[in-house]
Design a protein that fits this description.
Structural class of chain A: mainly alpha
Radius of gyration of chain B: 20 Å
Shape of chain B: elongated
Number of helices of chain A: 17
Shape of chain A: elongated
Distance between the termini of chain A: 57 Å
Strand content of chain B: 25-35%
Number of helices of chain B: 4
Helix content of chain B: 10-25%
Oligomer: heterodimer
Largest interface: A-B, 35 and 35 residues
Strand order of the largest sheet of chain B: 1-2-5-4-3
Distance between the termini of chain B: 75 Å
Largest sheet of chain B: 5 strands, mixed
Strand order of the largest sheet of chain A: 1-2-3
Helix content of chain A: 40-55%
């Protein structure tokens, strides 16, 4: 028996009942955004055939803030608040990657305690970032409870960061050679309390979100990225690991204290939206394991490299030891001149691998600063992933990738 | 450094006449002398196991009237190669700022090449979609990441005309 096209079968059925219908193939173009609850600050130009997406043209650049150009006009220290703006909810990582690159050029060693504190801040930030991502995915799928839960739980971690760094949103915590403040017993207790709270909540998260049949229907087998495609398109972070590639910068090229900590990298084979969500959920659990280890094993010591510590005037140093161990930097620290050279650093940010490429010509300003953020590398992945899927799945692919427009624009 | 990697570096030096700098066992720089053999070198690296491009960076050197293009290449499938970031660099002149695109070899170069074209005006021959990316549609003037593009700066102290 030869298979007939679907519409011919339908026409025959209709003809048997004495009715007829005309099938008109509809092709068209649709603009999603650039101010849209489902796209943020981005225009997605969708070419449709029926409700199948034929091609997607991403019109990014609505929040472009030219970090790379502005960096040529600022001192290395003055750049810190600038580079952490693009991913404002993941600012510790943005800051950390830049500082690691600058430290490589400067050739500064970082004390052990500062390395642990960097990992501590980074993991707290990762949990907050993943909860944000899950919350945004929920609201894309029309699941308002998930959105409120994500942002409510995030608040717990943001408060810890606030207590540690003094800033609520843009935490300029990491500086060349160390970190700005020491951890206190109160923050440790707060974190342990937050971990036990979040563990209970993760079970609830699974019940309300991942076992929810309507969410599963929207995410399962949607936007499937095979392992080969993930490698070819250069996907990053949780999206890459959901496609079965074992790659995490924390394991491949350990920075901070990650080589001394015990944790696992969740890897899924499915490569669909649900797997990408589950990778994030499991990473939250792993991050909490890391936090527990850091609180238990953090070594005593200084939080700034001796080379810079010696430059602090003695009166200020006395204040440092007597009060909160908060570093007030000397004025000339702001305009150091690194030697000629270049460095590329990578860190595992909340959304994936973040790389900084800094070229120094010996002046107090970088000659060229290249910032390769995870969302920037997801532009091509998103474009290719949308081809051939249904229009209704556009937002679930978009949400499950955890794409953040300002981070891609930089 | 493994034997295979040593043979790769030897290949690059003898067969393609590339200049190879080994910073440490995680960072390797390969300077391609002629942009025409860029694709061959990239093909050789891909066959070896480097499978994606992390970034495409353009650097402007106005006093030498040339632009440098850096591809940062690494691997996902091979865990040993994943530890290495290989910088593949070449230079183009102001007069002829064009370069064969590596899109056909590394698909992940799509975003980086498009941005480098927009910001520095380097044409990547063979790129399927070489258009504006981040800038406004009505943007005019020099390419923004060239050093000749100056940002208007405002001082911290604004001089106000004294009123009497």
């Amino acid at each position: 028996m030869t298979s007939q096209p679907q519409n011919e079968v339908q026409e025959q059925l209709l003809a048997a009942t004495g009715m007829s219908v005309e099938f008109i193939p509809i092709q068209g173009e649709l603009n999603v955004g650039p101010q849209h609850p489902g796209s943020g600050h981005m225009r997605i130009f969708v070419k449709l055939n029926g409700d199948i997406i034929e091609d997607v043209d991403l019109d990014v650049g609505y929040v472009h803030r030219t970090v790379e150009k502005l960096s040529e006009n600022r001192n290395y220290m003055h750049l810190i608040p600038l580079v952490e703006r693009p991913a404002i909810l993941d600012s510790i990582h943005m800051n950390l990657g830049y500082i690691i690159a600058v430290e490589k050029i400067l050739g500064v060693d970082v004390p052990e305690r500062a390395q642990y504190l960097r990992s501590f801040a980074a993991e707290v930030n990762r949990i907050a970032s993943h909860l944000y991502g899950l919350g945004i995915l929920s609201i894309f799928l029309g699941h308002s409870t998930g959105f409120m839960w994500g942002f409510g739980d995030r608040e717990v971690w943001v408060t810890i960061l606030e207590a540690l760094t003094g800033a609520r949103v843009t935490n300029s915590y990491v500086i060349p050679g160390g970190v700005r403040r020491d951890i206190s017993q109160e923050i440790k207790d707060m974190t342990l309390k937050a971990i036990s709270y979040q563990r209970r909540r993760l079970e609830d998260w699974k019940k309300i979100f991942f076992y929810n049949p309507s969410i599963r229907a929207r995410l399962e087998n949607v936007g499937v990225m095979s392992k080969e495609n993930a490698i070819k398109w250069g996907a990053v972070g949780p999206n890459l690991r959901a496609s079965g590639v074992y790659y995490d910068v924390r394991k491949i090229e350990p920075y901070g204290a990650y080589d001394k900590l015990d944790f696992e990298i969740p890897v899924y084979k499915e490569g669909d939206g649900l797997a990408r969500g589950l990778v994030r959920l499991e990473e939250i659990e792993q991050s909490m394991r890391i936090l527990e280890q850091i609180i238990k094993n953090i070594p005593e010591g200084n939080i700034l490299s001796d080379r810079f510590f010696k430059q602090i005037p003695p009166t200020r140093l006395k204040k440092y030891w007597e009060t909160y161990r908060r570093i007030v930097l000397p004025g000339y620290y702001a305009s150091f001149r690194p030697p000629k050279g270049e460095a590329i650093s990578r860190v595992e940010a909340g959304r994936g691998e973040l790389a900084y490429y800094v070229v120094s010509d010996g002046s107090p300003k970088p000659y060229r600063l290249r910032m390769i953020t995870p969302s920037y590398r997801l532009i091509y992945v998103f474009k290719e992933l949308c081809k051939g899927s249904r229009y209704a799945d556009l937002v679930s692919i978009y949400g499950s990738l955890d794409y953040f427009p300002p981070e891609a624009d930089r | 450094m493994s034997e295979e990697l040593k043979s790769l570096i030897n290949d690059l030096q003898t067969k393609f006449k590339c200049q190879v700098k080994i910073e440490n066992d995680r960072r390797i720089t390969v300077i391609v002398p002629d942009k025409k053999i860029m694709k061959d070198v990239a093909n050789h690296l891909k066959n070896f196991g480097f499978d994606h491009v992390k970034a495409v960076t353009g650097i402007d050197y106005p006093e030498q009237e040339k632009l440098e293009v850096v591809y940062h290449i690494s691997s996902y499938s091979n865990l040993d190669l994943a530890k290495i970031i290989l910088a593949l660099r070449t230079t183009v002149t102001y007069k002829d700022p064009s370069l064969p695109s590596l899109y056909s070899i590394f698909e992940s170069a799509w975003t980086g090449e498009r941005e480098t074209y927009e910001m520095l005006g380097i044409r990547f021959e063979g790129h399927p979609d070489l258009r504006r990316f981040f800038l406004d549609e009505d943007f005019e003037g020099v390419y923004p990441l060239r050093k000749s593009f100056k940002i208007k700066l405002e001082g911290i102290f604004v001089d106000k005309p004294t009123t009497e």
